[in-house]
UniProtKB/TrEMBL annotation:
It comes from Anisodus acutangulus. GO terms for biological process: jasmonic acid metabolic process; salicylic acid metabolic process. This is AB hydrolase-1 domain-containing protein. The keyword Hydrolase applies. Transmembrane segments: none annotated. GO terms for molecular function: methyl indole-3-acetate esterase activity; methyl jasmonate esterase activity; methyl salicylate esterase activity. Pfam families: Abhydrolase_6. Keywords: Hydrolase. Residues 27-264 form the AB hydrolase-1 domain.
């Protein structure tokens, strides 16, 4: 009886140690185009209450970052805040990178550059392309196609930082269409907040995203979280990217493009489950 009690106690200690180690995991959350670190406010609250460390970055020209997104035409320039952040981490520190929508490009770029600093890469309704936009098929799979909602001029407000004779450098979905396209299952107060905070996204910079595959990048564990009712990166596009570059695990949320608003508790649970199931507590 005493020996059995000792074994059970040791098992409980082992579980407790693993849970404590997992709670030390550092999640770095990366927003999509036009968004900012603010979009993660529900997830950040849930994680921090549960003891996790969370960083919500603003990429250049997004959120409260002072740069003018209309002037950005280079993806490296746009993604500089994430790269600088990872560069500043101690050599032995690893993070769990989470990218939403176009934030998936930022996550992939980071895994090529800093594979030893990324323990897990999580893509949420995100563009997951091994080398970025290299081929026409990459664009078809990874770039939003909103043609069902009208011509680009009817769907987007656009800015022409290089002149009217050149393609637009930044754009944002018109306020009147944002709820219908991005937040159709989200609480009204969240889509209202988003309408007040969204900024033009540097579309030329994103189109230029191409990555040279870094040594060790393929060893970074990846998770994809599908969004079943997504009108921005539709399920067919998500499935095409998953098939082309299979991650270790795929989960599905019954949500719109913005599960951090429409399904925050389920998304939080999946992020913790993904981290635990792939050994981030070891």
């Amino acid at each position: 009886m005493g020996e059995e009690h000792f074994v059970e106690t040791e098992k409980m200690k082992d579980v407790q140690e693993k849970l404590e180690e997992l709670s030390k995991a550092h999640f770095v959350l990366v927003h999509g185009i036009s968004g900012g670190g603010w979009c993660w406010y529900k997830i950040k609250s849930l994680m921090e209450i549960s003891g996790y460390k969370v960083t919500c970055l603003d990429l250049k020209g997004a959120g409260i970052h002072p740069a003018d997104p209309t002037t950005l035409i280079s993806f490296d320039d746009y993604n500089e805040p994430l790269i600088d952040f990872l560069s500043s981490l101690p050599e032995n520190e690893q993070v769990i990178l989470v990218g939403h929508s176009a934030g998936g490009l930022s996550v992939t770029d980071a895994t090529h550059r800093f594979p030893k600093k990324v323990r897990l890469a999580v893509y949420i309704a995100a563009t997951m392309l091994r080398n970025g936009f290299v081929t026409e098929q990459d664009v078809k799979d990874g770039a939003p196609d909103l043609s069902e909602f009208g011509e680009p001029i009817d769907v987007y407000d656009m800015w022409f930082g290089l002149g009217l004779e050149q393609p637009p450098t930044s754009a944002v979905i018109k306020t009147s269409l944002q709820r219908k396209i991005i937040y159709q299952m989200s609480p009204l107060e969240d889509s209202t907040l988003a309408a007040m905070l969204l900024r033009p996204g540097p579309i030329q910079a994103l189109k230029s995203a191409r990555f040279k595959e870094g040594e060790g990048a393929e060893e970074v564990l990846r998770i994809y979280i599908r969004t079943a009712y997504d009108r921005v990166v539709n399920p067919e596009q998500q499935d095409a990217m998953i098939k082309k570059w299979p991650p270790q695990n795929v989960y599905t949320l019954e949500s719109d493009h913005s599960p951090f608003f429409s399904a925050p508790f389920l998304l939080f649970g999946l992020l913790i489950k993904a981290a635990a199931s792939l050994g981030c507590s070891e």
